[in-house]
Amino acid sequence: MPFDALNDWCLGLERDLDPAAEMLHFLRQEIPNATEVDPWQLEAVNSTAGTIAMRVCRQAGKSCVLATRAVRRLKQGHTVLCLAPADRQSREIGRKVATYLRATDLVVERATQTEIETSNGGRFISVPASGATIRGYSVHEIQIDEAAYLPGMNGGEDVIVSVLPMLRDDVQNSQVVFASTPAGKNNHFAELFQETKDDVHLIVVKGTSIPRLASRVERLRSQLSATRFRQEVEVEMLSDGLSYFDLATIENATSMENAICPRL
Hints:
Elements: H1 3-17, H2 19-27, H3 39-46, E1 51-56, H4 62-74, E2 79-84, H5 87-101, E3 108-111, E4 115-118, E5 123-128, E6 141-145, H6 157-163, E7 175-180, H7 188-194, E8 200-205, H8 214-223, H9 226-232, H10 247-253
Parallel strand pairs: 1-7, 1-8, 2-5, 2-6, 6-7
Antiparallel strand pairs: 3-4, 4-5
Helix pairs in contact: 1-2, 3-4, 4-5
């Protein structure tokens, strides 16, 4: 075997045996100079819990985690259903999955804007979270991106109830994966963190804890209100969603700089 071929074979074997090496290989399809995978990303990719909930700041790489998990499922011939509040969001995950697949030996037999099918029977489906588009599937993994922003009067619970029966019960490792930045406390996603249950793997990732986001975090600190910064960057669940006044309004009314009647 020529040296180059042997080297490629060894790299492929490393990726098959080491999830961190595999995910880094995927990341480099988008970011060629990527050098490592964040510990929380590897934790989420490797989790075997029945339910995984990731409360993650924006731009931290949660879509990379979802896409990596999806490709690992496809390599096993599994079916993955990915939901998001908006069509644009669900398609973005689909594009990332397609990019990662090109870095594997899997053969894509059919690809549309919402579905990818591989030659080993794997299937990835990405659709917006509405009742008209998410019925009739049988899947090994359900991924719900921006889960805190699901549509519905009851914080997305109707969507969750409609998709959970699609999860196959004839295999041991069927999973549901939630990923989102927070949007208050009055939604199904927030309840996962407030009412902890067995076999729910909770992951919380603050922007201030990721060194590669340091410059972006400082920029947001200077541009956002303290309340918005705590929600978007420090991923705090600040409101119960029932307050008459928005938290930012309360903040401005009680600050020395913005109050109509400043505190003395």
